[in-house]
């Protein structure tokens, strides 16, 4: 992110009344000081740098404990890591290691959140829906169920999730809605009045386990195709208090 983009990014938060606190992950003393008086840390570290994803979160956890933070929410989101085998995909290894670290640490509460694929990503052609070309690509069979969440819904739900006792030291799944690619095709055709070509995308089947290990996009497709991207009882559907999300489950 360029400097001007950063200024706008942080400025938008400040304009909404947010108080910005700055700290460096490689400065444990300064990081601890910056976290003083904070009850919950929501980690949003992301990217493909495994060192940052693990060591960065670990540094933040250690500083949080020293600052007496009560709860740490890991940078998980996306797939339910409990459904992914150890060392199945390189991208998820540091996230899995962080979860294991917190599960074995009673000095700070934790919450692990899975959201499925962000709904916005479904409209990127390589993930499934190509509006311009009128093409729908499914992950495996057309009737496989997929749970997905809008990023805005995650932000809206988080405050209430934190306040629920059921989220303490828990692994929870969220979903704005659950659907199938066949249903998406029907909706797209009803809205546009045009036919969409339907393709069952099984590209991941041509890859070995070793190749999937390093290709996160294809790996995600394979997880959905085997049914592990479907949440039958999302946390926000079984807890009435979590009613802020603007989308209803299909």
Automatic annotation (TrEMBL):
Q: Name one GO molecular function term.
A: oxidoreductase activity
| Keyword Cell wall biogenesis/degradation set for record | no
The keyword Cell membrane appears for this protein? no
Tell me the ranges covered by the NmrA-like domain, including all copies: 5-213
Q: Which UniProt keywords apply?
A: NADP, Oxidoreductase
> Which PANTHER family has this protein been placed in?
NMRA-LIKE DOMAIN-CONTAINING PROTEIN-RELATED, NMRA-LIKE FAMILY PROTEIN
Protein's UniProt name: NmrA-like domain-containing protein
Q: Which organism is it from?
A: Adineta steineri
């Amino acid at each position: 992110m360029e400097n001007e983009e950063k200024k706008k990014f942080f400025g938008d938060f400040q304009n909404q009344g947010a108080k910005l606190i700055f700290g460096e992950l490689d400065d444990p003393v300064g990081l601890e000081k910056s976290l003083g008086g904070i009850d919950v840390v929501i980690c949003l570290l992301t990217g493909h740098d495994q060192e940052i994803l693990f060591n960065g979160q670990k540094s933040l956890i250690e500083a949080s404990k020293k600052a007496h933070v009560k709860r740490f929410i890991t940078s998980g989101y996306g797939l339910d890591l409990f459904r992914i085998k150890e060392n199945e995909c390189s991208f998820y290894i540091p996230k899995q290691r962080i979860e294991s670290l917190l599960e074995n640490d009673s000095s700070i509460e934790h919450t692990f959140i899975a959201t499925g694929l962000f709904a916005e990503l479904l409209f990127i052609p390589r993930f499934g829906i190509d509006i311009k070309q009128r093409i729908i690509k499914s992950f495996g069979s057309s009737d496989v169920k997929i749970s997905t969440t809008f990023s805005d819904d995650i932000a809206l739900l988080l405050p209430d999730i934190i306040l629920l006792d059921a989220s303490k030291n828990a692994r929870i799944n969220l979903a704005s809605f659950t659907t199938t690619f066949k249903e998406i095709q029907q909706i797209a055709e009803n809205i546009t009045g045009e036919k969409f070509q339907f393709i069952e995308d099984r590209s991941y089947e041509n890859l070995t386990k070793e190749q999937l290990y390093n290709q996160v996009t294809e790996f995600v497709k394979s997880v959905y195709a085997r049914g592990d991207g479907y949440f039958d009882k999302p946390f926000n559907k079984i807890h009435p208090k979590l009613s802020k999300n603007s989308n209803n489950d299909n």
